[in-house]
């Protein structure tokens, strides 16, 4: 099999080339999986996203910017080690913007929020770096399948080619970034929880997994992180009305 040319000359990159590449799904060997909260998650690694962006848009034709002034830190309850000593726990959220210069001179910007929790002060820097990678991956996913959109949203069949104005046709291509969503704390063990995307959509999973397998539905967690369990009610009409009360704009991850 001839090895694929990774670096394309800038003048070889056309809108047709970009649209063709954006429609390609990531090959299976590049999709990583990890288990969390009793479920398995599929994701693409940060280095893969950067390599893909170079290949599709060309080196130097895209950039990443963090909106540091909107970085949000949420302090969780103090953790306790077995020896009785205490450690800080919390979560950082950073809005991340990617900008791509297309060959038709159109500049496309996509933004999303990177979120990472930490346990212990020494992990703060790692968490902030993790936010940037997470936000970059989520922002690029708005371009479509090649950047793992289907892994985030299950919308793999809804992607349209870039329009002349540079907007991808995804229904949710530009969600409103919301750095104010606070992650809930697990009622069972006190650990912070992280928003995860599984086969059936998004949910909050306990960071204490595998010791704790607690999960909350997104519509059970308010913007301030408080947990309001959904009533167990078998009446489908009741369920529908509850679903409609959830403002999807408030849950941008
Ligand atoms: Zn837990």
Any overview of this molecule?
The protein is α+β, with helices and mostly antiparallel strands. The chain has a single domain, classed as DNA repair protein Rad52/59/22 (Enolase-like, domain 1, 2-Layer Sandwich), CATH 3.30.390.80. The chain is 21% helix and 25% strand. It contains 5 helices and 11 strands. The protein has helices at residues 15-23, 46-57, 124-141, 149-153, 236-245; strands at 32-36, 39-43, 62-66, 72-75, 79-80, 86-87, 89-101, 107-119, 193-198, 201-206, 215-217. The strands form 4 sheets. Strands 3, 4, 7 and 8 form a 4-stranded antiparallel beta sheet that branches. A 3-stranded antiparallel beta sheet has the order 9-10-11. The chain has a two-stranded antiparallel sheet with strand order 1-2. Strand 5 and strand 6 form a beta hairpin. It is elongated, with a radius of gyration of 20 Å. The model is unreliable at 154-161, 163-177 and 233-253 (pLDDT under 50). The structure holds zinc ion. Zinc ion (ZN) binds at residues 186, 188-189, 191, 206, 208, 212, 214.
Helix-strand category: alpha+beta
Q: Please give the alpha-carbon distance between the first and last residues.
A: 39 Å
Number of helices: 5
Query: What's the overall geometry?
Result: elongated
Q: What do we call the CATH homologous superfamily?
A: DNA repair protein Rad52/59/22
- As for the number of domains, it is 1
CATH class: Alpha Beta
């Amino acid at each position: 099999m001839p090895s694929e040319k990774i670096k394309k000359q800038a003048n070889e990159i056309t809108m047709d080339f970009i649209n063709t590449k954006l429609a390609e799904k990531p090959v299976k060997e590049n999709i990583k999986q990890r288990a969390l909260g009793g479920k398995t998650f599929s994701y693409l690694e940060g280095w893969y996203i950067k390599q893909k962006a170079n290949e599709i848009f060309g080196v130097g034709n895209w950039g990443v910017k963090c909106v540091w002034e909107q970085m949000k830190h949420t302090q969780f309850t103090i953790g306790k080690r077995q020896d009785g000593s205490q450690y800080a726990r919390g979560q950082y959220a950073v809005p991340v913007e990617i900008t791509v210069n297309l060959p038709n001179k159109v500049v496309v910007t996509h933004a999303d929020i990177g979120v990472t929790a930490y346990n212990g002060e020494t992990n703060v820097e790692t968490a902030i770096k993790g936010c940037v990678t997470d936000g970059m991956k989520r922002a690029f996913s708005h371009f479509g399948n090649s950047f793992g959109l289907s892994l985030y949203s299950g919308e793999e069949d809804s992607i349209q080619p870039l329009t002349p104005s540079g907007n991808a046709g995804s229904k949710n291509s530009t969600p409103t970034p919301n750095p104010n969503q606070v992650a809930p704390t697990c009622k069972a063990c006190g650990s912070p929880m992280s928003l995860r995307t599984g086969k059936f959509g998004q949910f909050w999973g306990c960071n204490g997994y595998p010791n704790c397998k607690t999960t909350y539905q997104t519509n059970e967690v308010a913007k301030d992180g408080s947990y309001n369990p959904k009533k167990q009610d078998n009446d489908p009409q009741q369920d529908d009305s509850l679903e409609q009360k959830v403002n999807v704009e408030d849950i941008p991850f």
